[in-house]
Structures are given as structure tokens and as C-alpha cells.
Amino acid sequence: MLKLESISCSYGKLRVINDVSMTIKNESVGIFGPNGAGKTTLINALMGLLPVQSGKITYNEEDITKSKTHEIARKGIAMVPQERELFPWMSVRDNLELGGVFIPRAKDMLEERLDFVFQMFPILRERSAQMAATMSGGQQRMLAIGRALMANPELLILDEPTLGLQPSIVTELFDKLGELKKVLSILVTEQNVRESLRSIDRGYVLENGNIVIEDSAEELAKNPQVIASYLGL
After folding, report:
1. What is the C-alpha separation between 171 and 167, in angstroms, rounded?
2. What pTM, to 2 d.p., does this model score?
């Protein structure tokens, strides 16, 4: 589905991603690493928000390395940004509908997608007329994910989805991701490795812009380096 081949990216003269290669098929994949490892930079490059200096990105065997963000979204990739970036003074329902109305693969099935989102996140149905800005942080995160799902994606990308959330909401959110991976592919960047490993099939560890570990979720949970650095054991 998605393939990165020797991707490198920089901010000015600062190299942030260095010769990274990975694949995402019909599965759920995690990217882990400390702050500054390059996780968000890599996601921004995937979505056309940051130029790729070298390497190649293909999606369903089509080269999207130089595609614009809206073009990538219309091909079936949806992103939930770290900062949510909702329309704060619009209703929950309006925010959701904006997630699909400009996407050709989704605009003729808005009601069907709304039903899917409301089944996944019932609180959004209850709060459909509420302004997004007045919702809790966890509810806003659910709304951001719901808006991305409105685009009827094949691949859902989430950048640090649990950032700033209380532990009970984090657990609930990863439970939902575990359900979602049954119907679409997921790529998630996350610092909460312990919870993430419950919901993914495979993972990559990114440090200083380089992939240092790649393995199944089961093997990552047993890896001494991952245990020492990310699981706090």
C-alpha cells in the first residue's frame, strides 16, 4: 500500500530524516521514538507538507513523492495532526462533514460515513450540535479522528494521538484504534509505546532521524532496548 524508499528530509541545513525506508500494507504500524526523533517530520513528508530531498514515496504503486497534500488526501490517505486543528466555533457535525465533502471518494456517502463515525464514537452523536471548542481534550481528539474517517480513507495516519490526554482516555482511544484496524490500515506515531503495542501489528523505532529497530509488536514488547528506553521496566 504505502512504501518509503530511502527518504531524507531537512529543515534548512538541518537533516532530520536520514535515508528512512518502511512499508505499510493492510495492517497497523507504529513509529516510536523520543521527542526530536523525526516522527512528525516523517509524517509531514508523507502528506506533502514538507519536501522530500531524496528518496521515493509510493502509494498503491503510484509515485506520490511530489504530490500536493490535497492530492494525497484524495487518493485515500487521511491524517489526524498532533494539534487536532479543528474548526473551533463550528459544530461537531459541521466539522465532521468538512472531512468528507471535498473528497471525491467520500462526498456522495456523507450520511453513511457519519453513521460509521457515530458508531465508533457515540459521544460525537450526542454532541453533534455542540461547538468543537467547548469539548474536552479527549472529545476533541475523537472528533479529529472522526473527521479524518469521514474522508473514507484506506490509510489513516495519526500523529501523537494521545498527547495531553488523561490515562483513561488514552486506553479508550487505543481500544478504538484496535477496532479501526479491522477495516483500514493505520500508521501512528506515538511516545506511549506500552499502550500502542496493544493496537498495532508492527513497529519501527526512530532515533535521530534513522530507523534503529523494526519488528512485530510482540517482539518489540520483548526487545531489551525497547523495554529499557520506552517501557520503563
Report:
1. 6
2. 0.93
